[in-house]
């Protein structure tokens, strides 16, 4: 039975590498990113579905979760979307700090919340969260 992984932040870095690795191992991959229209490499892989997802958009999280679940069972959710905010703390604006928390913390929490009822019902499922 083929397993499926749902990945946030799959446009670059660890997310993209994870999508390619799992696809190469025969898994079905649901690779999400803010701008899937810019993606070319993952679209070319047969067992990868690329979907739009901005983890700061609560409505979109719920819509894409339902769309992903309609494709079949999901075994793993890889919370990878995030970014580093670098520089002197006193130079960072409140807006920059809030946006980073919305992405790196609340995005993880909201995606996890969206999949928890499904994993509970199945009595199976794994969350993996990267740290920044």
From TrEMBL:
The keyword Mitochondrion does not apply. Keywords: Oxidoreductase. It comes from the Bacteria. The keyword Oxidoreductase applies. Pfam families: adh_short. PANTHER family: SHORT CHAIN DEHYDROGENASE, SHORT-CHAIN DEHYDROGENASE_REDUCTASE FAMILY PROTEIN. Belongs to the short-chain dehydrogenases/reductases (SDR) family. This is SDR family NAD(P)-dependent oxidoreductase. It comes from Dyadobacter chenhuakuii.
